[in-house]
């Protein structure tokens, strides 16, 4: 994974965030991870104060998104990212507890690139995150400013 | 309301009976009175006849007398013949009169007296005529002039008068009776008619009253029907809303419970890793402290041995972690089960025509491996086709067949049979096995969520039957079990043959 890629982790549960980070690191991915525990902060970071996301122009980002956030649903963030001209090429990985097929379908329809259900079984969970890490290390992330 | 209407109908019946009775009474009375009038009239006519008979008798006597006298005076034979014809008619006329008056004792006596007087008079006439024939006119006149002859004449006149008086009296009485009878007849008829008319009028009034009451009741009924429908609709909507709320609640709760569970499991696993590291280090340290020369061996050893209290500590640690992890796993299964159930509850059912035989054949094929392992045979009998939701039916039958295969008696070859029949618009399906059976006290319990019965030697959450029953209910059916411990079980499912999907939840929230 080319170094400048920054991982934006939007996850309200700090435990989950910690487990995800640990396992990503264990898979050998050392990119910067910026964690957000609520939707508003993440949105402000991504889209800037004016909501146009000009500030993120030219940055290579990868968004790790939980759907159940305290202040908004991850689906809204996904929708905004995919509708924004600067961010729409940014890969979005939805990582959530919901395994409802309708929800999964909806996320893919909105342009989510990968949907992963958080398994309660830690082996599977760790495995999934490590594989995601491997995926991050080979994925080519376009700069967000095209 | 009902009491009033009952009273009204009783009254109507009474009125109708009364009217009928009056009609019958009037008819009978009329017939009787008409008969009586006819009899009375006959009596009047009879009286008149008797009077005329008496009159003609007297006339005949006069004729006979005058003919006799004329013959005495003139001896002309034409008077003789006239006398004879009159005298010959008299006895017959007398007989007739006697016959006619046989009903009246006074007249009978009078008639007898009259006959005696007339016969005496006739005898006198006969004597005079005989004398005239013997040219003894003088004595003949004497005969007629004799006081006895005037006596007889007077007697005849008197008796004739008596008889006529008597008959006049009778005539007056009988005419009066006849009049009375006729007046009575007509008044009875008029009174009866009036009564019938009055009864009819009352009936009409009552009828109108009751029909008005019925109209009112009908209107009220319509109103309350409409009301009832509205109420039912409202309640149904409320229930549906409540049901949806419960499902949403169950969904959200189970969903949100999962999040902390991921942490618990994750960090427990992290702890487990740490435990490994810690105890490995303790073992290494112990070894280093006690056996300095063997240090190289220890580093070589893949897993350093723990000793004494340290080993016990490690085992306890392991045991605790094991319980935590198995509990987490169980909780996760329960949460998943609730999630699946709520998801099923939100699914829209689509009624379609289903070939049950084909559907169950398919299920049996998928469990063929399980059946072979359990040494069981599955027999499919005649099955009616029904209109229902395919997926729901698949889940119902595969759950039941799964259960039948799962809970067989060990050492006995399993025999599972699936049969169906129809009855009164419902299809009845039976899934029978010869397995371990269910204690009757557990028959209700097995349908409860997370509850199981019997020996707990098979994996399972206690969801299958709860789910099946929920599905059967949503499809408008019922299900029951008949079973005894060690003697197999029969699960009976009754489903409508043509399920329209009307009682399925409508307008479920779009986002699920």
Walk me through what this model shows:
The complex is a heterodimer of chains A (146) and B (512). Chain A is built from five helices and five strands. Chain A has helices at 14-26, 39-47, 74-83, 101-109, 122-138; strands at 6-10, 33-36, 61-65, 92-96, 114-117. Chain A is globular and about 40 Å long. Chain A is 40% helix and 16% strand. The mean pLDDT of chain A is 83. The longest helix of chain A has 17 residues, at 122-138. Chain B has three domains: 3-212, Methane Monooxygenase Hydroxylase, Chain G, domain 1; 247-340; 349-511, 2-Layer Sandwich (Heat Shock Protein 90). The two termini of chain B are 53 Å apart. The chains are: A alpha/beta (146), B alpha+beta (512). Chain A binds chain B through residues 13, 15-16, 19, 22, 68, 97-100, 102-103, 106, 118-123, 125-126, and chain B through 255-256, 258-263, 265-270, 328-329, 332, 339, 343, 511-512.
Structural class determined from secondary elements of chain A? alpha/beta
Query: SSE order of chain A, as H and E?
Result: EHEHEHEHEH
Radius of gyration of chain B: 63 Å
CA-based gyration radius of chain A: 14 Å
Look up the CATH topology of the largest domain in chain B: Methane Monooxygenase Hydroxylase, Chain G, domain 1
Q: Which two chains have the most extensive interface, and how many residues on each?
A: A-B, 21 and 21 residues
| Oligomeric state of this protein | heterodimer
The number of distinct structural domains of chain B comes to: 3
Number of E-type strands of chain A? 5
**Class per helix and strand makeup of chain B:** alpha+beta
CATH architecture of the largest domain in chain B: Up-down Bundle
Distance between the termini of chain B: 53 Å
């Amino acid at each position: 994974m080319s170094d400048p890629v920054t991982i934006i982790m939007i996850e309200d549960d700090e435990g989950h965030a910690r487990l995800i980070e640990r396992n990503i690191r264990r898979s050998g991915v050392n990119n910067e991870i910026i964690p957000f525990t609520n939707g508003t902060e993440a949105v402000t970071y991504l889209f800037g104060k004016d909501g146009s996301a000009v500030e993120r122009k030219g940055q290579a980002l990868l968004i790790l998104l939980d759907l159940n956030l305290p202040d908004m649903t991850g689906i809204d963030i996904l929708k905004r990212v995919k509708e924004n001209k600067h961010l729409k090429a940014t890969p979005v990985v939805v990582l959530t507890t919901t395994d409802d097929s309708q929800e999964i379908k909806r996320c893919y329809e909105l342009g989510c690139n990968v949907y992963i259900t958080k398994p309660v079984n830690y082996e599977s969970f760790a495995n999934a995150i490590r594989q995601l890490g491997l995926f991050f290390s080979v994925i080519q992330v376009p700069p967000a400013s095209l | 309301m009902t009491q009033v209407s009952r009273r009204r109908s009783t009254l109507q019946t009474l009125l109708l009976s009364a009217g009928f009775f009056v009609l019958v009474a009037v008819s009978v009375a009329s017939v009787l009175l008409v008969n009586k009038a006819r009899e009375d009239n006959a009596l009047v006519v009879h009286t008149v006849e008797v009077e005329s008979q008496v009159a003609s008798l007297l006339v005949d006597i006069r004729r006979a007398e005058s003919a006799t006298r004329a013959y005495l005076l003139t001896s002309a034979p034409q008077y003789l013949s006239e006398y004879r014809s009159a005298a010959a008619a008299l006895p017959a006329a007398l007989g007739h009169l006697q016959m006619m008056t046989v009903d009246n004792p006074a007249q009978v006596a009078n008639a007898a007296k009259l006959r005696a007087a007339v016969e005496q008079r006739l005898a006198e006439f006969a004597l005079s005529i005989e004398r005239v024939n013997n040219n003894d006119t003088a004595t003949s006149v004497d005969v007629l002039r004799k006081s006895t002859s005037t006596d007889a004449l007077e007697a005849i006149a008197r008796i004739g008068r008596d008889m006529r008086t008597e008959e006049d009296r009778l005539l007056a009485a009988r005419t009066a009776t006849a009049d009375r009878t006729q007046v009575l007849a007509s008044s009875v008829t008029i009174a009866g008619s009036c009564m019938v008319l009055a009864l009819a009028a009352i009936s009409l009034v009552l009828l109108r009253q009751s029909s008005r009451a019925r109209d009112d009741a009908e209107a009220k009924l319509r109103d309350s029907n409409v009301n009832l429908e509205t109420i039912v609709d409202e309640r149904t909507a409320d229930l549906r809303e409540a049901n949806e709320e419960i499902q949403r609640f169950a969904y959200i709760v189970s969903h949100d419970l999962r999040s902390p569970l991921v942490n618990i499991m994750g960090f427990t696993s992290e702890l487990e890793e740490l435990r490994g590291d810690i105890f490995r280090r303790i073992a290494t340290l112990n070894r280093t402290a006690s056996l300095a020369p063997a240090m190289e061996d220890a580093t070589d050893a893949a897993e350093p041995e723990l000793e004494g209290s340290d080993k016990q500590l490690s085992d306890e640690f392991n045991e605790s972690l094991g319980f935590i992890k198995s509990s987490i796993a169980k909780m996760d299964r329960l949460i998943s089960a609730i999630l699946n159930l709520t998801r099923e509850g939100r699914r829209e059912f689509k009624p379609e025509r289903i070939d049950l035989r084909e559907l169950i054949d398919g299920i049996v094929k998928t469990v063929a491996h399980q059946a072979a392992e359990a040494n069981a045979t599955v027999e499919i009998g005649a099955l009616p086709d029904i209109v229902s939701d395919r997926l729901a039916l698949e889940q119902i039958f595969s759950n039941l067949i799964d259960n039948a295969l799962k809970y067989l008696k060990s050492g006995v070859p399993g025999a599972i049979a699936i049969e169906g029949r129809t009855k009164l618009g419902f299809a009845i399906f039976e899934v029978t096995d010869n397995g371990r059976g269910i204690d009757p006290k557990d028959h209700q319990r097995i349908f409860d969520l997370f509850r199981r019965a019997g020996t707990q030697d098979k994996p399972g959450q206690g969801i299958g039957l709860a789910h099946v029953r929920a599905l059967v209910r949503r499809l408008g059916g019922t299900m029951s079990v008949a079973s005894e411990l060690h003697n197999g079980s029969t699960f009976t499912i009754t489903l409508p043959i043509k399920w329209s999907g009307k009682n399925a939840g409508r307008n479920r929230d779009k986002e699920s």
